[in-house]
């Protein structure tokens, strides 16, 4: 049989802050059978974060200039800062049949879902990571120690709002241990890669 091709998948991952998503994406990136599309943000880097690897850290003016230039596939204001997905990274990889993972909030995911581009619509596979509960989330955020108490309060309020959107996603993973979350996300990736409609098989 001739070579089988597959169209690229756009994995959209959303999870309230503190649900363990960064650890999850870091672990997934250890086996890079997809491209992680690094977002732009106006939030300052946390200790240990690397420009170009965790985010492209932009000044607010630069971010606005990129909005005006149409560089973002979607962007949103989250926790008082701007975050955006670069259009070219996503589209160039999908067109080569390479899978892309983006880690975005529920507003960004809604924009992607309503995106008129048929390539994006066909590629989309969206996954929500549901934290075990707000108390556990508060505990995780405090243990992480990267945010002030005010920031934690804001993030918890936003988390409660984000958690109401889980039904909008094709998949929901109830967050358990990190190993469980990774295994479940990998299972979603495997299943999506076998969808008949994604395969391009030459006629016999
Ligand atoms: P954090 O500041 O904790 O890294 O991220 C805060 C929130 O912004 C998370 O919910 C994360 O998913 C979201 N986020 C990160 N990058 C993007 C992006 O490019 N677009 C949107 N809409 N949200 C993003």
In short:
With 204 residues, the chain is α/β, with parallel strands linked by helices. Helix content is 40%, strand content 21%. It has a single domain (5-196), classed as 3-Layer(aba) Sandwich (Rossmann fold), CATH 3.40.50.300.
Number of helices: 8
User: How far is it from the N-terminal to the C-terminal residue, by CA?
Assistant: 7 Å
Structural class: alpha/beta
What is the CATH fold-level name? Rossmann fold
Listed once per kind, the bound small molecules are: guanosine-5'-monophosphate
Main sheet: strand order: 3-8-2-9-10
CATH class: Alpha Beta
Largest beta-sheet characterization: 5 strands, parallel
Sequence of secondary-structure elements: EEHEEEHEEHEHHEHHEHE
Mean pLDDT across every amino acid position: 92
Q: What is the CATH superfamily label?
A: P-loop containing nucleotide triphosphate hydrolases
Rg over C-alpha atoms, rounded to the nearest angstrom: 17 Å
Any idea what the CATH architecture is?
3-Layer(aba) Sandwich
Give the number of DSSP strands.
11
Strand content: 15-25%
Considering DSSP H and I runs of 4 or more, what fraction of the residues is helical? 40-55%
Low-confidence stretches: none
Backbone shape: globular
How many domains is the backbone divided into? Answer: 1
């Amino acid at each position: 049989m001739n070579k089988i091709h597959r169209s690229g998948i756009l994995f959209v991952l959303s999870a309230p802050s503190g649900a363990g998503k960064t650890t999850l994406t870091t672990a997934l990136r250890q086996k890079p059978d997809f491209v992680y599309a690094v977002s732009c943000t106006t939030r300052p880097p946390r200790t240990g974060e690397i420009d170009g690897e965790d985010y492209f850290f932009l000044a607010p003016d630069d971010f606005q200039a990129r909005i005006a230039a149409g560089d973002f596939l979607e962007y949103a204001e989250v926790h008082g800062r701007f975050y955006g997905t670069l259009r070219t990274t996503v589209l160039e990889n999908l067109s080569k049949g390479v899978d892309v993972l983006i880690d975005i909030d529920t507003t960004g995911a809604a924009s992607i879902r309503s995106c008129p581009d048929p390539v994006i619509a066909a590629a989309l596979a969206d996954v929500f990571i549901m934290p075990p509960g707000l108390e556990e989330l508060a505990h995780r955020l405090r243990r992480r120690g990267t945010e002030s108490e005010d920031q934690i309060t804001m993030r918890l309020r936003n988390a409660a709002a984000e958690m109401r959107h889980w039904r909008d996603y094709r998949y929901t993973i109830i967050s358990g241990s990190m190993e469980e979350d990774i295994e479940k996300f990998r299972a979603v990736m495997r299943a999506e890669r076998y969808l008949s409609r994604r395969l391009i098989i030459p006629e016999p």
